[in-house]
Amino acid sequence: MKKLASFIFSLFVVSLFALPSISLAFTGLSASSTGVDMVENNVILSDNNPILIATNLINSVMVFLGILAVVIILMGGFKWMTAMGSEDKIKKAQQLMTAGIIGLVIILAAWGIAKFVVTRLASTI
User: Are 60 and 22 in contact (CB under 8 A)?
Assistant: First the structure.
């Protein structure tokens, strides 16, 4: 269990560094067009829409959480397959898979609510 926790923690830490570049790759933006850029000691603000930046950030976080939920479901399936008929291990694996599915449903609901709210905010501006 400690190995699993350390693996998930290391995956989380690595994804914190990779998440901005992944989100930029999905949108086709460059790093200088997403915020503040320094040129010859002058601060140049981005001309991007803040709603677009918020949407990209929300989508990036949801992609990471979705991948994490799928990994939890796969770990539950692996534990079930390696349980060798032990009822206790099968029950724990089913609980892990159930938790992963519930997490995935919550993530999808949160993404839908966030998309709805951002779309409504964008239409009022």
Answer: yes
Contact by Cβ (8 Å): 76, 31 = no
CB neighbourhood size of 100 (10 A): 20
Query: What's the pTM?
Result: 0.62
Whole-Å CA distances, 88 to 80, 94, 97: 10, 10, 14
Neighbours of 93 (CB within 10 A): 20
**Structure confidence by residue, pLDDT tens digits, 17-56:** 666 555 555 555 555 555 555 556 666 666 777 788 888 8
Nearest-angstrom CA–CA distance, 83 and 19: 35
* Dist. CA 105–CA 65, nearest whole Å: 11
> Which amino acid belongs to residue 98?
T
Instruction: State what percent of residues in the chain have pLDDT above 90.
Output: 42
Determine the pLDDT at residue 6.
Answer: 77
Helix axes 50-81, 87-124, angle to 10 degrees: 170
